[in-house]
Specification:
The complex is a heterodimer. By secondary structure, chain A is mostly helical. Chain A is built from nine helices and no strands. The longest helix of chain A has 23 residues. Chain A is elongated and about 55 Å long. By secondary structure, chain B is mainly alpha-helical. Chain B is 72% helix and 2% strand. Chain B has a two-stranded antiparallel sheet. The C terminus of chain B is likely disordered. Classes of the chains: A mainly alpha, B mainly alpha. Chains A and B meet through helix 2, helix 3, helix 6 and helix 9 of A and helix 1, helix 3 and helix 4 of B.
Chain lengths: 192, 271
């Protein structure tokens, strides 16, 4: 990907050149999907978010002022779309954890020494399953804040702006996310 | 220094524990405290595990695939909003919409004020049982309230759309808002009816937002049709400063949620 190409395509797309917008979509779809999947944890939801984000970008393209890169802009739109979707989604699992904090996640019993199991593939799948479950325990704000800090390396200020939170509340959301995941993953990662 | 808290360690991991001095203090403590080192290592193990979670792969053709999916929908996005709006705001439909609003509100108020609902000393079985036409009184009330919620929900959605589009317009040295003014005037009329109904129903929160909305709509309706960029900017700033779009959106969501919520045994419009 070339930032210069982006700038040129954005200018052309703003002038109504549809093939230029198509090039932007083709260049950024995979990155947008990756972010959308991290945020939603679901392939169908991530697919919806990707499409919604590009449609929104198309509608708002006239207002894009190129103060940030197109990538940063489309990722910001993606975060908004995903955050809206997360807030609409029921969160039964999180409620069950909140009602019973400290007990970890039910369903998968810890084993004495997971790393010594011969079936490493199965263990890997179990780890992935637990990570997914742990992520599903987070509130929309916690999940978004965590993904943006941990995977995207965004600053607290940027995250706060995206979520409408102050820096202190953003920090707390990130901490709560990590804390919940530590509890959920303790059986396989170890508590201490 | 006491042991570091879990929160301090997590934030330290991301470099967010505080200023340089606070970070240095944490680092120094960690250096000499085995218990905190163990705790910190456990946090990092958790985060490394989370990091290892894979994202499903998408091939090289994924961008083209997305383009094919969204391309047919771009045409709708290309259509200027005033064309879409004009579909709804043709005079005949405006008259119809206004008439419907009046009927809904009138039916709601009539239902609230009709003597039948205030007659005292009915036997409990009758009071809780059948009213006109054999329909339970509570059901009639629920239906009236649901109709009102649907109408208010639609009104809020239209108002939100109008305001969002208004604040997002305005390129060039002169800004023509004559079309927005027509929409605002129409919305004001319906808004007055809904606000009065909300007041009579004891829906103070709803009435308050509708009151704020009405002021903004009136301001737009009574502005000159053509504004300079600076004048338009002031209108936009006032709308944004009042947070009215946000309030309308929240109330709209709330109303929509109540529309689909299963009705309680004895319905009440007070949420």
């Amino acid at each position: 990907m070339d930032v210069h190409d982006d700038a040129q395509d954005v200018t052309q797309a703003q002038a109504g050149d549809e093939p230029a917008f198509r090039r932007l979509v083709e260049r950024h779809s995979r990155g947008v999907f990756q972010l959308a999947f991290r945020l939603t944890g679901s392939e169908p939801d991530a697919e919806d978010v990707v499409q919604e984000a590009f449609l929104k970008a198309y509608r708002e393209l006239r207002r894009f002022e190129a103060r940030s890169s197109f990538r940063t802009w489309i990722h910001r739109i993606t975060v908004n779309c995903a955050y809206d979707l997360l807030r609409q989604r029921p969160r039964h699992k999180a409620e069950s954890l909140n009602a019973d904090e400290g007990d970890g996640v039910g369903g998968i019993e810890p084993e004495a020494d997971e790393t010594s199991r011969p079936d490493r593939l199965a263990f890997g799948a179990e780890v992935q399953s637990r990570v997914r479950t742990a992520m599903d325990l987070l509130t929309p704000a916690e999940r978004t804040a965590f993904v943006l800090r941990h995977f995207e390396g965004r600053s607290l200020e940027e995250i706060g702006e995206a979520l409408g939170l102050r820096v202190g509340a953003t920090k707390h959301s990130i901490f709560r996310a990590v804390q919940k995941m530590r509890r959920a993953l303790a059986p396989i990662v170890g508590c201490s | 220094m006491n042991h570091l808290s879990e929160e301090q360690l997590v934030l330290y991991h991301y470099g967010d524990a505080g200023d340089r001095a606070e970070n240095a203090a944490i680092e120094e403590h960690l250096h000499g405290c085995e218990a905190c080192q163990v705790q910190f290592a456990a946090i990092r193990r958790t985060l490394d595990t989370v990091q290892s979670a894979p994202v499903p792969e998408r091939g090289d053709g994924y961008g083209t695939e997305i383009w094919m999916r969204i391309e047919p929908r771009l045409a709708a996005s290309r259509r200027p909003w005033w064309q879409t709006a004009s579909d709804f705001f043709v005079p005949r439909r405006l008259v119809l919409a206004g008439g419907v609003a009046v009927l809904i509100v009138a039916a709601f108020v009539a239902g609230r004020l009709s003597p039948g609902t205030t007659q005292p000393a009915r036997p409990p079985a009758v009071a809780a049982g059948k009213a006109n036409g054999g329909q339970p009184a509570a059901t009639q009330e629920q239906v009236r309230e649901r109709i009102l919620l649907v109408a208010v929900g639609d009104h809020l959605e239209r108002s939100q759309m109008a305001l969002v589009e208004l604040v997002n317009t305005g390129d060039g040295p002169k800004v023509d808002i004559s079309a927005e003014q027509i929409r605002a005037r129409d919305l004001v009329s319906a808004n007055r009816l809904y606000r009065a109904t909300a007041v009579s129903a004891g829906e103070n929160g709803m009435a308050s937002v509708l009151d704020d909305l009405e002021r903004v709509l009136l301001e737009v309706a009574n502005s000159p049709s053509t504004l300079t960029t600076a004048e338009f900017q002031k209108v936009r700033e006032r709308i944004e400063a009042q947070g009215i779009i946000f309030k309308v959106r929240v109330l709209g969501d709330n109303v929509r949620e109540r529309e689909v919520r299963p009705a309680p045994k004895v319905a009440s419009i007070r949420g």
